[in-house]
Every structure is written in structure tokens, then in C-alpha cells.
Design goal:
heterodimer, A: mainly alpha, two-stranded antiparallel ribbon, B: 376 residues, mainly alpha, 3 strands, 3% strand, elongated
């Protein structure tokens, strides 16, 4: 590995961590699309900042661009408050308008501005090591490394000092307000950090990858874990894995680094979306199927309890009485048999003592509307789940 | 070229005519379908779909090797649809919320598209340069066949809207009721989503990935302010969309270095701002005016009630009193006295005022309405 390669990977990892932290809160606050809006609407800020400073890494440009990100948030909230359109429409109206202004500004001054819309949206990490920061003539490393490193340090500092406040205002705004933490202050603080991070990272990885790095790692962590601290750590780990794997994939394919980091994120997300325990697609589908057959089982047991007459309990007539297909009827009867809830005597089905107790308890739970507790009950009674 | 020149040339010049027609038709389609997107609270779906179309475009190019825009559109359509259904899958099957799902699909698909694009650009194939235009759109590359395609899509959208009008309308305002009536809501959903994806895909070439969502939303959001009737809203949105297309093209064609997409979006945004401020029913200006008027009325009522409290202690309700005694009361101004007189609640005679029988009657009932309601 050359030193340039190490620097690129270092920048990618730091960007990933710097994005994952505000991203986790955005995802939890249901404001993930705000990051997309910010990432586009910083464009006019960047262009104007570039006119003034002529340096893409100048701190003034970053502040100016971050300011236009915050203006976006304020405008979106103002439009939402008027109640004229739904909230997501407000986001969709503001950022394309600001982005258009940015594009037109660039086009109008094409001669003077060495700035490409492509570059803003897509970034080029591979060139980041060439732009060095010189202090008193000595080379101290790539500029973007310093920029994003500073941002990460600020973010971490704020996260540690305001963790409790952020946590409470994220999950319970009213409680936060009663306890005297200003949710508004937290909100704008978070928005400012998100804006600054987006601006600091766009030059290295591009606006779209910023969105991917802000949303995908926290979303993956959220599918796996419900604890905020662990979620933050896990999100950072996912971000770093994607950054490193993405870099080497790009190296191998000779393609865009930002693109391959996103692709790795996409593949990771697909795997977690499918296979996450409890929240993944497969486990959700499995659970839904199980719940369905268990509800059928309960219906079936209730039917048996309510009917003493033999004609209603004859195995061949079940199809007519409860209106089930043959396959479903067979699987429900099998499940009931396996769990010792019924016995079959000469084609007549009757409830066992256990089945009777289960049915009575279950119907009590349902009537008193404590449906949450039914899972415990199932644990107690079932030998085999559906 | 000035704007007047442009409008005189638009009917004769092939390029101008094609581009103007194309953007106008695109505006109409987006306006019509965007109305549904806005009402279904799916405003940002457009943004996600337009980004999600990119890998489809590149893969279509990789497979066919041709830069034929129709083949690329099919790729965009397929990948847009996959993105949309994945978004729905994430929202319904996991605890991630819609905003996260949209952001995920948007950025992940787009990033994958970028990877493929850089991959394509490194292939020794001279044709690939044109793919970039899908990012930011280039109305100037529209040719007559594109306009025909847009016209076709507009026709399809119109026919579907007319055929399923009742169902769509019902579904958008009361989905549960629609289901209980026996309509296949899932089918309606798929049809509407497919139409929206289709309209986004045909717009990509003109206004580009980033600005497509505004194209879909802005005309509809503007139209929403002027009416509460769905049919009128769709019609207005189509008109706003068409006007944005035409004026956007006109302005960008008449000055150098202005790409059409951003100008169209800014014109549409202008319509939105005007509608937000000036629409009579919901607009901010008239809302503010109504608020001032209500506040004034309240002040007048306070003054009137104060006068009534004084007058009722006298046998003759029209007994004149000095204006001076009103001075230590907040609601009193010269203007309020005058407007009370205009309404014939009081008569003013020099420094004295007196309540008229009409004003007395009004004042008695002023605060009784609440009591009456409670007693009922």
C-alpha cells in the first residue's frame, strides 16, 4: 500500500464515522430525507463561498455552505408550519429550487468557476491526497483529512457532552421539554452538525455518498439492535467496513470509490434486510406465517369447545364448518395433535384437558384485550410452534 | 434572442418547437400524476425513483450497447419499479420508517449506478458520453420521437385516469372504505405507482435526476392552493406544469449558459410561491388579512361591551356619555368609534357618544352565544 492509498482509506473511514453519528439520530427522528435535501441545497452556498474564497477547503466556504443547509431546514419548517402542504412535500419543493439556483450560478459564471456540478454530487476521493495542507512549508497531510477530522472531533465532543439531552429529545420530545432541555435547540444543533458534515464530506466523497453514509449504516444497525449506544457503535463499524471494502472493490474494478462504497453498503443492507433476526424480511414473514396458523388453531379450538354435537366435530366436515382448504385444515389439526390439545377418536375430534385450559385462558386474554401477553401463554402451552 | 423573438420563432423553428412541445407535455404529465403523489403523501417518492433509475439506464446500455433512448428508458423503468417496490417492502415489513426507506433506496441505487457508470466510461466505447445527460438533463437533445413518446405517455395517463377516476378518487380520500367496497386497492396502487414511475422516467432526459422530483411536486403543490376539487386541481396542475415547461424553455433558450431543467424548476417554484401567498382560500396574505380583520372585530366587540356596561346602569339606554371615559380602556381608538358609528351601534355627537337600540341589542347578545350553547 502506498501512502496515498492509506490516506484515502483513512479519509473514507473518518467520513463514514462522521456521517454515521448524526445519521443515526436523523433515522431515529424520522428525518432521514432531510439529509438528502441538505446534501443538494448546499450547492448555492458552495458556489457563493467559492466566489468569495476561491478555495474549496476554506473554512469560510464550509460555514457558508453549512448555513445554506440550515436555511433549507428553516425554510422546510416554515412551509410545514403554514400547513399549506404536507411535510414531505415541503422538503421536495425547497431543495430542488435551491439546487437549481446553484446550477444556474455555476452555469452563468462557468468561465470564472472551476467547479463542476458532477464533482459536488459525486466527489472524487482518489484525488483527495493530492490537495495537501502546508503549515509553514511542511506537509502535514491532505486537506480534506484535516477538514473532516476536525468535524468528526467536534461531532464527537458534542455527542459526548449532550448525549443524554439528544437521547431524550429524540425519543420523547415532551419529556425533554418538561425537563428543561430545549428540543428546538437540540434539533437545530443536530441539523447544523448534519449540514457541516455534509459540506465537509462532499468534496471527498460527493453529496450522494454522504446521504448513503448517513442513512444506510444507522438503518442497518437499527434493524439489528435497539440500544442507542450500541446502535451508534454498530453504525460506525458498518460505515468503516463499507469504506474499506468499497475502496478495495473500486481498486480492483478500477471504478469510482464513492460508487463502490455505496454498492458495498447496498449489499450489506440487502443481507441485513433479508436475514436480520427479528426484524429481517425472512424472520418477519416466518413470524407472520406462524401467527396466522396459531390464530387458526385458536379458532379451531374455540369451535370445538363451543360444539358438543358430533356432526360439528367430525373430521371430514371441518372444511365446511370453518371454511378452510384441505391443506390448511390438515396443518392446523396436525399442530393441535402435536401439542396434545385434541384427540381424534373414530374421526370425531375432542379437546383434551390441556386444550380446554388453553382455549379458556386464550379467550380471556382476548376479551380483556391483553393481546401482548398471549405470546407468554403460547410459550407455556406449545410444545411445537406453527 | 429576446423572449418575443423566441415566441415568434417557436412555431417555425424545428428545434425550438420540439423542445417547447416536449417540456410542455412533460409538465402536463407531471402535473397530473404529481397531484396524486402529493395527495398520497408520497411526495419524495419521485426523488427516490428518479435516482433509483440510474443503474437501470446503465445496465440497459451495458446489455444493448446502444444509446437508443427508448432502450435506456425501459431499463430506467424496470429499475425504478424495483426501487419503488423495495421501498414499499422496507416500510411494510420492517420497523424502518418511510423517510429512511426512501433515503436508503435513493442513495444506494444511485451509488450503484455511479459505480456502473464509471465502469462504463472506462470501456473503449465512444458512445457512452451521452449517459451523463441523464444526471442533469438536457432538453436540447430532445428529438421529435421523444416528443411522440411523451405524448403517448400523456395519452396513457389520461386514459387510465378517466377509466379509473372514481376508484382513484375514492382511494385517495378513504382507502379503507375503498377496500370495504370491494375494489382491488393493491391493483390501483400498482397502476398509480407505475404511472408515476413512467412519468419520472420520461422526464429524466429533460430535467435530470435531481430536479425531477420538483417537476412532479411543484405544479401540484401550487394547484392545491387554489381549489379543493380533485379534478380542478389536476387540471390546474397540468396547466402550471405546461406553463413552467414553456416559460422555462423560453428563458433558457434566450440566454446563454442556462440549462433548461433548473430554469423550469425555478419557474415552477415561482408558481408555488405565488400560490402560497396569493391564493384566496389558503394563501398566506389573505389568511393574514382575515386575522387582522378578526382582531379588529374583537376589539370593536370589547368596546361595545364596555359601552353596554355603562349604558345599562341608566334608564335611557341612549343617554349620552363623554368619549373621555373610554380613554382608560384599551380597545378604544378614534377609528373604532367611527366604525361603531358606521354600523349604527352608536351615535357620536361631538365629545359625547350614546348607544342606539340596535347597538344595545347587539351588545346584550354578544357574549350570550356561549351560554345559549351550553343551555341547549
Amino acid at each position: 500500500m502506498t501512502s496515498a492509498q492509506i490516506e484515502i482509506q483513512l479519509i473514507a473511514c473518518i467520513v463514514a464515522i462522521a456521517c454515521a453519528i448524526p445519521g443515526a439520530f436523523l433515522v431515529l427522528r424520522k428525518m432521514a430525507m432531510i439529509s438528502d435535501a441538505i446534501s443538494h441545497s448546499i450547492l448555492p452556498g458552495i458556489v457563493i463561498g467559492f466566489f468569495l474564497t476561491e478555495d474549496l477547503n476554506s473554512p469560510w466556504l464550509i460555514l457558508l455552505a453549512a448555513l445554506s443547509g440550515i436555511i433549507t431546514v428553516v425554510m422546510v419548517e416554515y412551509i410545514q408550519k403554514t400547513g399549506l402542504v404536507k411535510e414531505d412535500t415541503a422538503i421536495g419543493l425547497v431543495f430542488p429550487a435551491l439546487f437549481s439556483i446553484g446550477v444556474i450560478l455555476i452555469a452563468k459564471n462557468a468561465g470564472d468557476v472551476h467547479l463542476d456540478v458532477d464533482a459536488v454530487l459525486l466527489g472524487e476521493l482518489a484525488f483527495a491526497p493530492f490537495d495537501r495542507l502546508l503549515i509553514g512549508g511542511t506537509d502535514v497531510g491532505p486537506k480534506s483529512l484535516w477538514v473532516i477530522g476536525t468535524i468528526l472531533l467536534i461531532t464527537l465532543g458534542l455527542l459526548i457532552s449532550f448525549f443524554k439531552e439528544l437521547k431524550i429529545s429524540t425519543f420523547d420530545k415532551q419529556l425533554a421539554a418538561t425537563l428543561g432541555f430545549s428540543p428546538v435547540l437540540m434539533h437545530y444543533g443536530l441539523m447544523s452538525i448534519a449540514s457541516v458534515t455534509t459540506v465537509g464530506a462532499f468534496d471527498a466523497v460527493g453529496a450522494i455518498l454522504v446521504v448513503a453514509l448517513m442513512i444506510a449504516p444507522p438503518a442497518m444497525a437499527y434493524l439489528l439492535i435497539k440500544d442507542l449506544k450500541k446502535m451508534l457503535v454498530l453504525a460506525c463499524i458498518f460505515g468503516v467496513i463499507a469504506a474499506l471494502a468499497g475502496y478495495w472493490m473500486a481498486h480492483w474494478l478500477d471504478a469510482s470509490i464513492a460508487g463502490s462504497i455505496t454498492t458495498v453498503l447496498g449489499m450489506l443492507f440487502l443481507i441485513i434486510y433479508l436475514f436480520a433476526p427479528n426484524s429481517g424480511l425472512i424472520s418477519v414473514l416466518h413470524r407472520q406465517k406462524r401467527q396466522k396458523i396459531e390464530v387458526h388453531l385458536l379458532t379451531f379450538l374455540l369451535h370445538l369447545q363451543n360444539h358438543q354435537e358430533k356432526s360439528e366435530r367430525h373430521i371430514n366436515h371441518l372444511n365446511e364448518h370453518i371454511n378452510w382448504h384441505k391443506v390448511r385444515a390438515t396443518s392446523v389439526v396436525d399442530l393441535a395433535l402435536k401439542n396434545n390439545m385434541i384427540t381424534i377418536d373414530d374421526h370425531i375430534i375432542s379437546l383434551t384437558e390441556k386444550g380446554r385450559i388453553f382455549t379458556t385462558e386464550a379467550i380471556n386474554y382476548i376479551i380483556t384485550n391483553k393481546s401482548a401477553a398471549i405470546e407468554d401463554m403460547k410459550e407455556r402451552f406449545f410444545l411445537f410452534r406453527g | 434572442m429576446s423572449v418575443q423573438e423566441y415566441f415568434s420563432l417557436v412555431f417555425t423553428d424545428y428545434t425550438l418547437r420540439t423542445i417547447t412541445l416536449g417540456t410542455a407535455i412533460l409538465g402536463i404529465v407531471c402535473g397530473m400524476l404529481g397531484s396524486f403523489a402529493v395527495l398520497r403523501k408520497q411526495s419524495l417518492l419521485g426523488d427516490a425513483i428518479s435516482h433509483a433509475a440510474l443503474p437501470g439506464i446503465v445496465i440497459a446500455f451495458l446489455i444493448t450497447g446502444a444509446k437508443n433512448s427508448n432502450t435506456l428508458l425501459v431499463g430506467a423503468l424496470i429499475s425504478g419499479l424495483i426501487g419503488t417496490f423495495w421501498i414499499k417492502g422496507i416500510i411494510t415489513k420492517t420497523h424502518l420508517k418511510s423517510d429512511t426507506a426512501l433515503g436508503l433506496i435513493l442513495s444506494l441505487f444511485f451509488g450503484f449506478g455511479m459505480l456502473l457508470l464509471t465502469f462504463v466510461q472506462k470501456m473503449p466505447n465512444a458512445q457512452q458520453a451521452g449517459l451523463d445527460k441523464y444526471l442533469f438533463g438536457q432538453a436540447a437533445t430532445l428529438v421529435e420521437s421523444d416528443v411522440w413518446l411523451m405524448g403517448g405517455v400523456m395519452l396513457i395517463a389520461l386514459v387510465v385516469l378517466v377509466v379509473f377516476w372514481k376508484e382513484f378518487k375514492l382511494q385517495h380520500f378513504d382507502a379503507d372504505y375503498t377496500k370495504s367496497l370491494g375494489f382491488n386497492t393493491r391493483f390501483l396502487d400498482v397502476v398509480m405507482t407505475a404511472l408515476i414511475v413512467l412519468s419520472i422516467v420520461i422526464g429524466l432526459q429533460t430535467v435530470g435526476v435531481v430536479l425531477m422530483s420538483a417537476m412532479l411536486l411543484a405544479p401540484a403543490a401550487a394547484a392545491r392552493q387554489w381549489t379543493n376539487n380533485l379534478a380542478v386541481m389536476i387540471f390546474l396542475a397540468a396547466v402550471f406544469g405546461a406553463l413552467s415547461g414553456i416559460f422555462g424553455t423560453a428563458i433558457s433558450a434566450t440566454s446563454n449558459n442556462l440549462s433548461t431543467g433548473p430554469v423550469i424548476v425555478l419557474i415552477a417554484a415561482f408558481f408555488v410561491v405565488v400560490s402560497f401567498i396569493f391564493s384566496p382560500g389558503r394563501g398566506l396574505l389573505f389568511k393574514q388579512i382575515r386575522q387582522w380583520k378578526n382582531r379588529n372585530d374583537l376589539q370593536l366587540h370589547k368596546t361595545l361591551h364596555f359601552m353596554y356596561e355603562i349604558a345599562k346602569t341608566h334608564q335611557d339606554i341612549s343617554h349620552p356619555h363623554a368619549v373621555k371615559i373610554l380613554n382608560n380602556f384599551q380597545g378604544y381608538t378614534k377609528n373604532s368609534l367611527k366604525s361603531l358609528a358606521d354600523r349604527e351601534y352608536i351615535t357620536v355627537d361631538g365629545p359625547m357618544w350614546s348607544l342606539t337600540p340596535k347597538g344595545y341589542e347587539k351588545a346584550i347578545n354578544l357574549y350570550n352565544q356561549q351560554d345559549n350553547l351550553l343551555n341547549d
